[in-house]
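Entry for the shared binder. Reason: the reviewer on the internal report wants the predicted structure included alongside the sequence.
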Amino acid sequence: MLTIDAKIRELKGRKTEELRREGMIPAVLYGPGVENKDLAVARKEFAGLFRQAGKSTLVGLRIEGETKNFMVLVNDLSLDPVSGNVTHIDFYQPNLKKEIEADVPLVFVGESSAVKDLGGTLIKNFDEITVKALPADLPREIKVDISVLKTFDDAIAVKDLTVAGKVELLKNPEEIVALAAAAQKIEEELEKPIEEDVDSVAKVVKEKKEEVSEEEAAPSGKK
């Protein structure tokens, strides 16, 4: 079980900038049956934890001065728009006996023959998927083996993803996760909406011209 240490923080609002300068990140703990707590965690410690846990793995939260450990998820992060550093963390303790929904990242592994040998391009329709499971059963990630994409006719659908029996994928089983497409087909698809837009614009211009012509031809009604 991954764990992280935290301290109760007194600084709030703009004063939390002092914590950040000291290498700490302001955080909050909340959840059903849990009293909200304002916390601070070490930036380096959290960075190492988040690389392993992400947002879909339960971690142990130890708060200085308290005997009880909390089982939490990293529910949300706030990032500095310039540096990209984490500026705030939401730790959420769920009901461990109740199923919850969470977004789990897809990790594409293997090598596609259609890409390597046929010069195709790997198309990923999404990089994460929403699942439903008990908090302890949430997967850290779901691997997608693209080695099955041997030709341009092959595709990987949601129903092809491998997950534990206790995990439910909340997406249409027939929806395509990934496929390998020929370069020519991609170019055609890219050009298609452009051509449609041009035709639409031309149609609107033609209609406007016709309206103007009708207005010019009609009597003004003035003497």
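Summary line for the report: The radius of gyration is 27 Å.
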